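User: Is it possible to get a 3D structure for a protein together with its bound compound? The compound here is magnesium ion. I've pasted both below.
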Amino acid sequence: MSGKSPQLDSSRPDSRPVPSAPAIALSEIDLSLGRGAARVHVLRGISLAVGQGEAVGLVGPSGSGKSTLLMVMAGLERPDGGRIAVEGTDLGDLDEDALARFRGRRIGIVFQAFHLVPTMTALENVALPLELADKPDAHARARAELEAVGLGHRLNHYPAQLSGGEQQRVAIARAIAPDPAILVADEPTGNLDEATGRQIVDLLFALKRDRGATLVLVTHDPGLARLCDRTIRLRSGRIDVPVAA
Ligand code: ADP
Ligand code: MG
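Assistant: Yes, that's possible. Here is the predicted structure of the complex:
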């Protein structure tokens, strides 16, 4: 595990994150997906480091690999080649169980398609990661997070009873609730009207400002990209010329 990391400070216990390590470090990431004729070389030699507490906007045309790169950063997709380290821990050193635990402790994920549990209410969906992490008062915290995204009146609705924008806000509340050090979000304002989108953006950036969280946000919204410290543009699975924030 992280004990092998050359960046580990010997005065710190192995499992503690290394403050000097980047939040996310990708080195020469290669990934192909699909089988046979449908196989696509999605990520081609991606290297980048995201600093702790940094907000990075990930932009680029549809199909350029943004969602896939986010999944690699979150440890949900293992690359065919290259290395990924999160807070100094090489994800390649973790087996599936250890990786899932690491993710649960450190990373919040907002999927492009939300991935809410259909048989659970909004409140239960948001409480789930809190319960898995043995946090006290999971339901009270989940309720507060849903109120913060403007869904205090939809606590007991199931995902199918919610609009796309409401489901997106449940997904954001679920990702924020466990207070992750790193939050990756795939087009988090993609389904929201302007006012609701602003409210969500405020919440995401409050996580960075007040709790020092690292944000990686896939977005097509130039206004949101401008709020980030830095923008990275993907084109056909490669990092394109960097765009000043
Ligand atoms: P973006 O989020 O930038 O729109 P994606 O990361 O979703 O792009 O996809 C990048 C490319 O990889 C697309 O051309 C897509 O069709 C392809 N792709 C994604 N997932 C798979 C898969 N499971 N099998 C085959 N091709 C895939
Ligand atoms: Mg995508």
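The radius of gyration is 18 Å. The mean pLDDT is 91.
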